[in-house]
Amino acid sequence: MRGKMIQETMSRQERFEAAVSLEKPDRIPVMPLMTAFAVRSQGMTQGTAWRDPDMGFKAMLDTFNDLGGFDRLYKPNLFWPMIGGRFCSTPIRVLIPGRQLPEDALNQIDERVLISRDDYDKLATLGWNAFWDEHYEKMTGGRKMSYVAATQNQLLDLYKEEVTIYQDQDIHPLFGAYVDSSMMAFSMARTLTEFTMDLYEVPEKVKSAMDASCDDLIQNALDVVALTKIPVVFIVLERGSGFYYRTDIFEHFEWPYLRRYVDAFISEGLTPWFHLDTDWSLNLPYFREFPKGKCIADLDGTTDIFRAKEILGGHMCISGDVQASLLTLGRPHQVEAYCRRLIDVVGRDGGFILTTGCECPIDARFENVKAMVDTAKNYRGKN
Amino acid sequence: MNRQKAIDLVEKALPAGEDPFDILKISRAAMEEVGKRFATGEFFLSELIYSAEVFKAVCAILEPGLVAKRNSDETQGEVVIGTPKGDVHDLGKNLMVTLMRAHGFTVYDIGVDVPPENLVKEVKRRKASILALSALITPAFVSMREAIDLLIEEGLRKKTFVIIGGGVTTDFARKEIGADAQTMDPAEAIRLCRQHLKGSEKTVRL
What we know:
- The complex is a heterodimer of chains A (383) and B (206).
- Chain A is of the alpha/beta class and 383 residues long.
- Chain A has helices spanning 12-20, 36-41, 46-51, 53-66, 119-139, 145-168, 182-190, 192-201, 203-228, 247-253, 255-267, 284-287, 305-312, 324-329, 332-345, 366-378, and strands at 30-31, 93-95, 108-110, 177-180, 232-237, 271-276, 296-299, 317-322, 352-356.
- In chain A, the strands form 2 sheets. A 7-stranded parallel beta sheet of chain A has the order 1-9-8-7-6-5-4. In chain A, strands 2-3 form a two-stranded antiparallel ribbon.
- In chain A, helix 13 (305-312) links the parallel strand 7 and strand 8.
- The longest helix of chain A is centred in the middle third of the chain and has 26 residues, at 203-228.
- Chain B is built from 8 helices and 5 strands, in the order αααβαβαβαβαβα.
- Chain B is of the alpha/beta class and 206 residues long.
- At the A-B interface, strand 3, helix 8 and helix 14 of A face helix 3, helix 4, helix 6 and helix 7 of B.
C-alpha cells in the first residue's frame, strides 16, 4: 500500500455527514458493506453466526477492527431490523446456512410467487399492512403473525442493543430502517417474471395496489427509525431500473412512490440511502429532482459510476462501487488502483463514499478489502 | 403481442390444419425480431421477458404436435446451461433457456447449485459445444473455474465454448476464470453463441 495515512481532522460521523451534504471531508469516507464476509473472515461458519447472534455480532466487530476500522458499519449483525407484525419489505423466504443450505454457504433469497394476480385487488382495498396480516398465515401454511411479530420484536430489541454498544465505541451502524421501493416490494412478492407480465397485462390493478400500499411502507420505516434512532433509511431499489424497464414504466410505477418516500423521510430529518442494484444509468437524471445534498445514490458496479458523477455530481452524494469480482478474484494492487481512480474522479470536490458494489462478497480476499479501506485512508486524490 | 391473443391464434390455427412446425418457425422469427429490437435499445429486458413467456405458452400448445414430428426439427447447436454450485438463483438462467430455445438452440437445463463435475458430465453426455453458466453471487466463481479445469482434464476445453452471465459476472471475472465470453445481455449471449458456432465451422444440422 502506497502513501502514508492522511491526517484526520474529522470524526467518522462528521466525515459521513460532510460527504452527504457534498462538502469536502478530510478524506474520503469508506465502508465495505459486510455481513457474511465478516463471519468467514473470523474462521467461523455462516451457520454458527446465524444460530448464535452473539457470534454474528462478534464476527462483525472483530472484522471491523481487523480491517483497521472504517467510517460506517453496514449492519451490526446478520439480520435486518423490522417492526413487529408488519413488514418494511416483502416477507420473502431466506434460505439459511445450516438449515436449508450447507453449513458454510451464503444465505440466499428463495424468490417465489407469494401473492396471486387476484391479490392486487385485496391489496388495493386493505393496504400493505392489513393485507399481510391476513395473507401471511395463509401463505406460510399456518405460521402465525403473532409468532413472526414476537420474533421481529426480539430482533429489533437486539438490534437497538447492538447499535448502542457500537456507538459507545464510535462505530456507527449505517441505517435506522430499510424499506423496499414500490416496484421492489411488488416484484419480490410476484417474482420478476410474473410482475413483468402483470405490468403489461393488468397495469391498473398493480397501480391501485401500489397506491394503497405506499403510506404503510413509509410509516413502517418511520416506526422502525423511531426505535433505532439512526436517521438513515436504506431504500432497496433494483427492480425498477432501466436495466429492466423502459422509463415510462419507471415514471408510472416507481418514481411517484419514491418521491413520496423521500418527501416523508426528509421532512422527518432522515437521509434516504438509495441502494441501486443493477444499471440505473437511464434513471439517474430523475434523481436530480431530489433536494440537493440530502440523499445518497449507492451504486453496485453495474451502473457506470463515472457517468453517474457527471449526472449527479454537485447535487447528490454517490457511493460505490468496488465490484464483487474484483474483491474475490483480484489482487490488492488492482483493488487499490480502482479505488484511487474512484477517489480521483468520483471523489473530486467531495460527495463520495467509497463502498463495495452491493454487499462485500462472502469470499472476498481479506487483503483486498483491507486494500480498499487503506486506500481511502492513505490516498488524498489528485485534486 | 398480447399473450392471450397469441394463445388464441395458435389454438385456432392447429385445428384448422396448420403445421405446428410452421407456427414454431413464425414464433422463432418473432423472437428474432424482439432480439433485434432489444439490441438496438428499442426494447428493454422486460419486453424480452414478456415475449419469452408468450413463446413458452405457444410452445406448450405446440408440444404434442412437435413431439410427433421431432425428426424434422432443426437445431442451431446444443447448449448445456446451469447455475453452478454455491448459487441457487435461476431467474437469469430460466430466461436464457427460453430465449435460446426460441432462437433454435437445443438446450439442456440442468438446474441450480450444480456441481462442476455434473456440468462437465452433461456436456460430455450431450456432446454439447456450448456450456452456459449463470450466477448472481460470487461462490459460483469457484465452481465455474473448477468446471473449466475439468473440461481441460477431459480434453473437452477446445471443443466447448464457455459463456458466463448474470449479476455478479464481469469481463474481469471471465479472464480470471478462463471462460470464453461474458455478458449481462441475453441477446448478446445468443449472438456470441451463434458467432462461436459459425467460427468453429459447425454447420446447422437439419
